[in-house]
Design a protein that fits this description.
It contains 9 helices and 20 strands. With 387 residues, it is an alpha+beta fold. The protein is globular.
C-alpha cells in the first residue's frame, strides 16, 4: 500500500537526446541531411523538454532527491546509491537504461515523453504515428504523468519482473558475457545481403567423471571414438593422475565415449545435442517482452508477457535437397527455448554480429566463435502500465 513518505530516496533521471538535438549538431558541421523537416523535429523536441521539466517539478514538490544524465552519457558510475531509474523518452531510452542494470536490483520506470495525443488522432485520422515511439515499455506518458508519478514515488504502481536473455560468446582466447537483453537479439552477418552460416544445437550440462573412459587420442576431437576393452585398460593404466587432471582442463582431451561434441562455458562442460547446419539471413531470439516487436513482425508468435521462456526464429532459412525431412526442418525455424534449456550456435561465417535490443549495442563475431543463449540473465524489475 502507498505510504505517506517517499518510497524511493534517490532517483536517476535518464533523458533521451532528441533527433532535433542530434541533427542540430550535424547542421553546425554542415553534415545534416537536406530533406529534414525542421519544424516537426523542433516541435517534438519542445514536447520532450516540457515533459522533462514537468517531471522535475513533480519530484521537487514531493521532496525527492534526484540527478539527471543524458542517455548517451549514462555510465555505471551514475548508479551509485540510486534506488530508482526513470527513463524519459521512449522504448529506446528504457532499453538503453536496462543494459546498465545487470543485476536487476534497481527498478526501472519508463515515461513516454511524446505520445500521440487525442487531438493528433482527430487531426490525422489515424490511431498511431510510426514516427513516434510506441512506448510499449513505458508505464507512464507525458499525458498522465502528474497523476501517476507520485503514485510510484509513494510505493504504488505496478512493478513487474521481466525475463531477459543471457548471451555468452566464446572466442579462441576469450569468453564475453554480453549485457542482458530485455527485448531481443539479432545474430547475423553485418551485411544484410550476405548469408549467415552457423550450426545450431542444444546444450546439456554433463558431469564428467574423471574415473570414466577417456577418448582415444586417435579421434578427431569432435565425435565419440570406440576402443576395445584391452586397449582402454592399457590406456587407463598408463595414465597418471596428473595427465588425468590435465585432460579435464583441456577441451581436446575430454572424455568422448559417452558424449558427442563437448564444449565449455564459464568452466562448465556441456554436450552439444541435435545439431543442425543453417544457411540463412540470421536468427532472432526474443524474450516474452520482445515477442510482440521485431519477432512478431518477422513471423514469430506473441507470448505471455511474463513467461520465463525465450523464442527463436531463423530468418529466411535456405533448405535444399532434403525431400525426406523438409517439413521437419521447416518446423525448426521457429521454436520456444524453455527455462532451463540452452541454445548453442557455432558461427561458421567469416564475420558476424550480435545486435542487442536494436542497432546501438553490438558484439562482433568471427569464424569459430561459440554462443550460449538462455534465459538465466537476472530478471529486470520494470514498471508496467496500470489503471
Amino acid at each position: 500500500m502507498p505510504s505517506n513518505t517517499p518510497f524511493f530516496r534517490r532517483l536517476l533521471i535518464v533523458i533521451k537526446q532528441t533527433a532535433f538535438e542530434e541533427y542540430t549538431q550535424l547542421k553546425l558541421r554542415g553534415q545534416a541531411p537536406k530533406a529534414l523537416r525542421w519544424t516537426r523535429l523542433e516541435s517534438r523536441y519542445h514536447s520532450h523538454k516540457q515533459c522533462v521539466e514537468n517531471l522535475l517539478d513533480i519530484l521537487k514538490k514531493n521532496n525527492v532527491s534526484f540527478s539527471c544524465v543524458n542517455r548517451v552519457e549514462l555510465d555505471r558510475q551514475h548508479l551509485a546509491d540510486v534506488d530508482l531509474i526513470v527513463a524519459v523518452g521512449g522504448d529506446g531510452t528504457v532499453l538503453s537504461s536496462a543494459h546498465f542494470l545487470d543485476h536487476g536490483t534497481i527498478p526501472l520506470l519508463g515515461i513516454n515523453s511524446d505520445p500521440i495525443s487525442e487531438e493528433d488522432k482527430l487531426v490525422k485520422k489515424k490511431k498511431g504515428d510510426e514516427r513516434r515511439s510506441h512506448g510499449a515499455l513505458c508505464a507512464i506518458t507525458a499525458l498522465d504523468m502528474k497523476e501517476k508519478v507520485p503514485q510510484v514515488l509513494f510505493g504504488g504502481g505496478k512493478l513487474t519482473t521481466r525475463s531477459r536473455i543471457r548471451c555468452i560468446v566464446k572466442s579462441t582466447f576469450s569468453e564475453t558475457r554480453l549485457v542482458p537483453a530485455l527485448n531481443d537479439l539479432l545474430i547475423a552477418n553485418p551485411s544484410p545481403a550476405a548469408v549467415s552460416r552457423f550450426r545450431m544445437g542444444w546444450l546439456k550440462e554433463v558431469d564428467l567423471d574423471p574415473k570414466g573412459p577417456l577418448r582415444d587420442g586417435g579421434g578427431d576431437g569432435m565425435t565419440p571414438t570406440s576402443t576395445s576393452s584391452s586397449s582402454q585398460s592399457s590406456y587407463n593404466e598408463a595414465t597418471s593422475s596428473m595427465q588425468l587432471a590435465n585432460s579435464l582442463s583441456d577441451p581436446q582431451h575430454l572424455p568422448r565415449s559417452r558424449y558427442g561434441t563437448i564444449t565449455r562455458f564459464s568452466g562448465r562442460p556441456y554436450d552439444v545435442q541435435n545439431s543442425l547446419n543453417v544457411w540463412s539471413s540470421g536468427m532472432w531470439i526474443s524474450t516474452a517482452t520482445g515477442s510482440t516487436a521485431a519477432m512478431a513482425a518477422a513471423g514469430g508468435k506473441p507470448m505471455d508477457l511474463y513467461s520465463p521462456n525465450l523464442q527463436y526464429l531463423i530468418r529466411e532459412h535456405m533448405i535444399e535437397n532434403v525431400p525426406d525431412n523438409y517439413e521437419e526442418l521447416r518446423g525448426l525455424n521457429n521454436g520456444i527455448l524453455e527455462k532451463g534449456q540452452h541454445l548453442h550456435l557455432r558461427w561458421n561465417s567469416q564475420k558476424g554480429r550480435v545486435f542487442i535490443d536494436g542497432s546501438h549495442l553490438m558484439h562482433n563475431l568471427e569464424l569459430g566463435d561459440e554462443i550460449l543463449i538462455d534465459s538465466e540473465a537476472p530478471p529486470l524489475a520494470l514498471y508496467s502500465r496500470w489503471d
